[in-house]
Specification:
The protein is of the alpha+beta class and about 190 residues long. About 20% of the residues lie in helices and about 35% in strands. Strands 2-1-7-8 form a four-stranded antiparallel beta sheet.
């Protein structure tokens, strides 16, 4: 990705809802150097108790295409009392900045940058999210079966996704996740 690509910006006028959050206009962004992404990362770092966890950004924001969301993975020990607030605050930051944040908690990070067609490094397990639904233009987007747990919603996942294999077959190599918060030892 060249440096200028980071600053590409597109715009979509439409309604999205995640939990209690509703937004009506959305950005698409080219990369992690974009001022909106830098602002979002700084706001995430200010969330109370976020330093109980390691936090990473990954996915389209690091790759060579414009993206409509920011993938955030919070890792560490499952602490629902902290995580409910942290995942809620991350969602609010996205809606306040008109850029959807797809944030999940999982105990350990899966390294997309290490997968190859010969070694797909399959991973499966539970992830926890703040809400169990997303609506786009009033249409419910329910991709998974969720299970309520301690004020959060957990779902079972399998990685890599078929889209990851398609990119690998095209010769694409995924970028390494970027850690934005390092857990403080207590």
């Amino acid at each position: 990705m060249n440096y200028e690509f980071n600053f590409l910006t597109d715009y979509w006028e439409g309604t999205m809802q995640y939990g209690e959050f509703i937004g009506h206009s959305w950005l698409a962004i080219g990369g992690p150097e974009h001022p909106v992404i830098k602002k979002i990362i700084n706001e995430i770092k200010q969330i109370p108790n976020i330093d109980h966890f390691d936090v990473y950004i990954l996915g389209g924001i690091l790759e060579d295409w414009i993206t409509w969301d920011l993938d955030v993975v919070v890792t560490g020990e499952l602490k629902p009392n902290y995580l409910k607030r942290i995942l809620r605050d991350i969602a609010a930051i996205g809606f306040n900045n008109k850029f959807y944040i797809d944030a999940v908690f999982k105990e350990k990070l899966w390294r997309i940058d290490l997968i190859t067609l010969e070694n797909p490094m399959h991973d499966e397990g539970w992830v926890w999210e703040y809400s169990n639904f997303i609506k786009k233009q009033e249409k419910l987007i329910q991709k998974f079966k969720y299970y309520p747990q301690d004020g959060l919603f957990k779902r079972y996942y399998f990685l890599p996704f078929p889209k990851h294999f398609e990119k690998l077959e095209q010769g694409y190599r995924y970028k390494k996740p970027v850690q934005i918060v390092v857990k403080k030892e207590l």
